[in-house]
Each structure stands twice: as C-alpha cells, then as structure tokens.
Specification:
Blueprint lengths: L6 H14 L12 H12 L7 H7 L3 E2 L2 H6 L5 E12 L5 E11 L5 E2 L1 H12 L2 E2 L1 H16 L4 E9 H4 L10 E7 L1 H5 L1 H11 L1
Parallel strand pairs: 2-5
Antiparallel strand pairs: 1-4, 2-3, 3-6, 6-7
Helix pairs in contact: 1-2, 3-6, 5-6
The protein binds guanosine-5'-triphosphate and zinc ion (ZN).
The site of zinc ion (ZN) has 6 residues, from loops.
Catalytic activity: GTP + H2O = 7,8-dihydroneopterin 3'-triphosphate + formate + H(+)
Protein name: GTP cyclohydrolase 1
Family: Belongs to the GTP cyclohydrolase I family.
Length: about 200
Amino acid sequence: MKRQIDIEKISSCIREILIALGDDPDREGLRDTPKRVAKMYEEVFAGMTLSNDEIAQLFGTTFDEEDMVEQSSNRCVIVRDIPIFSYCEHHLALMYNMKVSVAYLPKEKMIGLSKIARIADMVGRRLQLQERIGEEIAEIVEKITESDAIIVMIHGEHSCMTSRGIKKPGTLTTTVTYRGERINHDSDLRQELLMLMK
Ligand SMILES: Nc1nc2c(ncn2[C@@H]2O[C@H](COP(=O)(O)OP(=O)(O)OP(=O)(O)O)[C@@H](O)[C@H]2O)c(=O)[nH]1
Ligand SMILES: [Zn+2]
C-alpha cells in the first residue's frame, strides 16, 4: 500500500485555511506555518503510509523460545501504560493522555517488548477512532506472535470532547479489545489478564 504524504499539497491547503480564517499567510509569524504544519503532519501521520502487514514486518522481531514457551504455556506477557498520541478522524482533534496496555499469551513466538511499544506508537500515527487503535494493535500483535489470546486496553482523552463541543475536561474513555480463539472463550483468563493490566 506504500502511500506518500503529499507535503506540498498539505502546505498549500494550510495556506488556504489561514486565508479562510481571515489572516494574512504572508505576515512574518505565519510565513513558514504551512510548511511547518505539513512537516508535523508527515510526522504525526507516519502510520498512514504503512499497512498493518508492513508494520508487522517492520517490528516483527521474535524469539523462537520453544522450551520457554512450553514451560510457561499458561503465563502471559503484559506491557502496560505505553503513552501514545493520536488524532480523531471526525474532527482531526488530538487524542492525548493515552495509555496503551497489551497482554498476550505467547504461543510459538515471543515478540521483542519494545516492538509492542513501537506498534502502538505507529498505529496512533493515523487518523483514528480509539476503538480502532485497539483493534489494529491486536491484529498486528496477532500477525507477529500467532497468539490466540491478546487483549489491548486503552485509556485516553479526546480534545474534541474536552476543549470543544460538549467541553468535559477530564473525561476518560477506556476501550478493550479481545483477539484470538482462546481469549474469546476463556472468561477466567480474560478476568485474570484484565486484573493484571489494571
Ligand atoms: N466511538 C468513538 N467516537 C469518537 C471518537 N473520537 C471522536 N468521537 C465522536 O465522534 C462523534 C462525531 O459526532 P457528530 O455528531 O458527527 O459531530 P459533532 O457535531 O462535532 O459532535 P459533538 O462532538 O457532539 O459536538 C462525536 O460524538 C465524537 O465524540 C472515538 O475515538 N471513538
Ligand atoms: Zn473527534
């Protein structure tokens, strides 16, 4: 899918927005703003140039620790409170104070821990819904580990709810995604992992 972010186009659109706001895009303080915003978009939307398969490939370092996995077939890995940012697709507004926690039961492959944080970070760099961030992280972790028990829990604040519209600062949204046969059918395991993720 390898898509390019069109810096020139974003820059010229931002210039038009400045004009539509009634400001002068050629005044000193705004002269470089279209270019700056375009570069910022290139950074914060970097995940839009990659498919989930490509992210899985990019961060797919795994360890085939068969013995270890066998011995610990009922043990889990939990990476908690990974801070990320994202932008909501409805208002292009910032999602902030976001914390992602991922739990999974290793099957044959164990993923490098930092890669879980890298995946969460990259998935946040798309126009998103909080629910979809969880689904996409879970899908990528499943592609890499082939685990049948994955949970992704996300807490986040949405500036489209806190600084505009209904304006309720402090409102925290929590979403939970389950992925895999085992987690979908084993409610005890679900409860245990959820407790450990809190
Ligand atoms: N489910 C979900 N909804 C979101 C997310 N981010 C923003 N929204 C919601 O998307 C909805 C868009 O609703 P609309 O009625 O089309 O837009 P609006 O008139 O700006 O809505 P208000 O925010 O209520 O003023 C709002 O209720 C937002 O709170 C998200 O990550 N997940
Ligand atoms: Zn929004």
